[in-house]
């Protein structure tokens, strides 16, 4: 995420997406994308050649070509635009399933969007009883459950009746899809404090 002042305002375009260099851990992070406002979801397709990226302020999911050998991105283009399907709110966190389809948290939209990772077609909407849906990931023994996080900060007290799962983590079963294992990074870069 970019700069945020004490009042919670985020001036546009002041952030950067960095690449964690496997050999140097957190020393000298490599910038890969500038002019970012609210950096959020990242996902890669199964063969690792497509990288999906969310800068929430754009209300879009960007798609890059990704070269696994060099860990570089190129050919940025708009993959999915919330305006196309009149989706309220903004995209936030994101994950990908074993069919290379995206699951996108819809902040201020009370839902998770299911979008084809190849055609960008909206496959479905999973309604969530919380307005501020913040992130999604697959879990469970076979990665068959979708976990959804929601935010309570900034939600008016009267909204809690309409959105009773505000501020909770939800487990969704029976979607008929599985997630993909998360990509591992070198654990030596992380030390417990």
From TrEMBL:
The active site is at 92 (proton donor/acceptor). Its cofactor is Zn(2+). Binds 1 divalent metal cation per subunit. Residues 11-151 form the SMP-30/Gluconolactonase/LRE-like region domain. The keyword DNA-binding does not apply. Keywords: Metal-binding, Zinc. It holds the Pfam family SGL. One of its GO terms (biological process) is L-ascorbic acid biosynthetic process. GO terms for molecular function: calcium ion binding; gluconolactonase activity. Gene3D superfamilies: TolB, C-terminal domain. Signal peptide: none annotated. A divalent metal cation binds at residues 40, 92. Belongs to the SMP-30/CGR1 family. This is Regucalcin.
């Amino acid at each position: 995420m970019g700069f945020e002042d004490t009042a919670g305002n985020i001036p546009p375009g002041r952030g950067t997406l960095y690449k964690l260099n496997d050999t140097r851990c957190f020393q000298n992070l490599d910038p890969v994308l500038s002019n970012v406002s609210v950096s959020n979801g990242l996902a890669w397709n199964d063969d690792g050649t497509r990288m999906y990226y969310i800068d929430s302020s754009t209300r879009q999911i960007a798609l890059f070509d990704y070269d696994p050998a060099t860990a570089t991105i190129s050919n940025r283009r708009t993959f999915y635009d919330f305006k196309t399907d009149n989706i309220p709110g903004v995209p936030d966190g994101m994950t990908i399933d074993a069919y290379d389809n995206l699951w996108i948290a819809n902040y201020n939209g009370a839902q998770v969007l299911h979008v084809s990772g190849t055609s960008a077609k909206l496959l479905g909407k999973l309604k969530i009883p919380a307005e501020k849906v913040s992130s999604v990931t697959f879990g469970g023994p076979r990665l068959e459950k979708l976990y959804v996080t929601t935010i309570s900060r900034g939600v008016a007290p009267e909204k809690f009746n309409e959105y009773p799962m505000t501020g909770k983590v939800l487990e969704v079963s029976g979607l008929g899809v599985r997630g993909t294992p998360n990509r591992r990074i070198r654990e030596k870069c992380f030390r417990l404090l």
